[in-house]
Specification:
This protein is of the alpha/beta class and about 270 residues long. About 35% of the residues lie in helices and about 20% in strands. Strands 1, 2, 3, 4, 5, 6, 7 and 8 form an eight-stranded mixed sheet that branches.
Length: about 270
């Protein structure tokens, strides 16, 4: 569809705009992507964070597809790195667990998100939460730093997932682990859906097959890989009809393509 650099620019543009929106505006833009369907009053991806300790409404832009921090086995004093940290939602959840003696680093490639996250940090008065502008394929984090890495519906936005997981492996301490929520497929998307740029920014068109996703993780060197949670995503007709012709929509329904949110756990031996 596009080169890797073009895809990154699409994502930066979309998420830069999203950083200026409220959670309610993101929920009404069908997938948090600003994908031109703002009259659809629901989100097809986001899960409810509001009951988790450390939740800060200002940091929740409803952009995720899971609750990785809930499953991440974070402990007091840990160093946690969040890949694609947005306005800081998962970072602040993690901070409530690691406490004063831990440290949390959020990485995002969108300047507007970093600005928003830092503003939220200042309001909270945290001295052990740091947000850094950077690319997941080349993380601004030293080797063997993190006890735990989390990420929420972001690896889909990375064109080179093998490189991203290699970088994840590099920054995790020996014996550390990650918990990552993401979108995967079972069956092939139609060309019309895969080539839709706004769905890429909404995490669908960038998805790979579930087996391929897990194989990349294993190939990188991670062990004890397991799926902590799995949920099927149903894309409403209101969204699909804006992208597909009637005939293409019928074909898509017949194809039984499965789009799933999974939360994956793995360890660095």
């Amino acid at each position: 569809m596009n080169t890797e650099n073009e895809i990154k620019e699409i994502v930066k543009e979309k998420y830069g705009a999203i950083a200026q929106q409220s959670k309610d505006e993101n929920l009404s833009s069908c997938c948090g992507s600003g994908c031109g369907c703002s009259n659809v009053d629901f989100s097809i991806m986001a899960e409810d964070y509001s009951q988790l300790p450390g939740y800060i409404p200002e940091a929740d832009l409803a952009l995720g597809c899971g609750l990785p921090t809930e499953f991440a086995k974070i402990k007091s004093g840990d160093t946690v790195v969040d890949l694609g940290s947005g306005a800081g939602n998962d970072c602040f959840i993690a901070r409530s667990i690691v406490g004063e003696n831990g440290f949390v680093i959020g990485i995002d490639m969108t300047k507007e998100m970093i600005v928003k996250a830092k503003a939220n940090t200042s309001k909270l008065g945290y001295s052990n939460v740091d947000f850094r502008l950077g690319d997941i394929e080349s993380l601004p984090v030293e080797d063997n730093l993190a006890d735990v890495v989390v990420s929420n519906c972001v690896m889909n936005l990375v064109p080179n997932k093998e490189k991203a997981f290699k970088e994840t492996y590099r920054i995790i301490k020996k014996g550390g682990h990650f918990s990552i929520s993401d979108i995967v497929l079972q069956g092939a998307l139609t060309d019309a859906l895969r080539n839709e740029a706004s769905l890429y920014a909404g995490c669908i068109a960038g998805a790979v097959q579930k087996d391929e996703y897990l194989n990349i993780i294993e190939k990188t060197g991670f062990t004890n890989i397991k799926i902590q949670k799995e949920r099927k995503i149903v894309v409403p007709n209101e969204i699909l009809s804006k992208i597909l012709t009637l005939e293409q929509l019928r074909e898509y329904k017949k194809s039984q393509v499965g789009i799933f949110s999974i939360t994956v756990y793995a360890e660095k031996p």
